[in-house]
Write a structure and sequence with these properties.
- The protein is mostly helical.
- Helices cover 83% and strands 0% of the residues.
- The protein is built from six helices and no strands.
């Protein structure tokens, strides 16, 4: 059976915070005009895509520090525990959002794409409930249960590799689009 409740819990907990931390880094970095640097346009695009993972790692580190400080100082705040699944969900969410955001940024510039990023984050954070409800409805179909059963019967390593491959495919297609858009963009 699909772990729908765990997906909701992980998304509300760490995943949304990782998405927001990466958003802050990407928006700040995207606002800087790097077009005057002696770099080729495809190098600039690749650097932006690699920065997704750097900002995500920084977000994880900050989250762990804040969680530890909250616990040590005894603040009466509930901090969602971070686990391997939450990190994977966070990386997938960050990859998906930036796979949409970065081509928009390289096509239209920082202003329009920054607004779109905010819309994407709100749409993603509120839309995940609708996606989860859709999965709950699909669970009643045999073909969907067979797919879910196949995936759930795999080892955690295979699941992680599948999610990583999915994120890399999405990011590769997005990166190719971004390179094309940025090379054709007039400044």
């Amino acid at each position: 059976m699909l772990e729908v409740k765990n997906l909701r819990k992980n998304f509300r907990g760490f995943t949304l915070k990782d998405v927001c931390m990466t958003y802050m880094g990407m928006i700040i970095a995207s606002s800087a005009d790097v077009n005057s640097l002696p770099l080729k346009r495809h190098e600039i695009v690749l650097a932006k895509y690699l920065s997704i993972f750097v900002y995500s790692a920084i977000g994880i580190a900050i989250y762990l520090l804040v969680a530890a400080a909250t616990k040590v100082l005894g603040f009466p705040i509930h901090v969602y525990p971070i686990n391997f699944k939450a990190v994977i969900y966070g990386i997938l969410a960050v990859s998906f959002l930036n796979a949409i955001y970065l081509p928009l940024m390289f096509k239209f510039g920082h202003g329009f794409s920054g607004i779109m990023y905010i819309i994407l984050i709100f749409g993603f954070s509120y839309g995940i409930s609708y996606v989860i409800r859709l999965f709950e409805k699909l669970v009643n179909y045999d073909w969907f249960q067979n797919i879910v059963s196949f995936i759930m019967n795999q080892s955690d390593t295979v699941k992680m590799l599948f999610i990583t491959a999915l994120a890399l495919i999405i990011l590769t297609v997005s990166c190719l689009l971004s390179v094309k858009f940025y090379k054709n963009r007039e400044f």
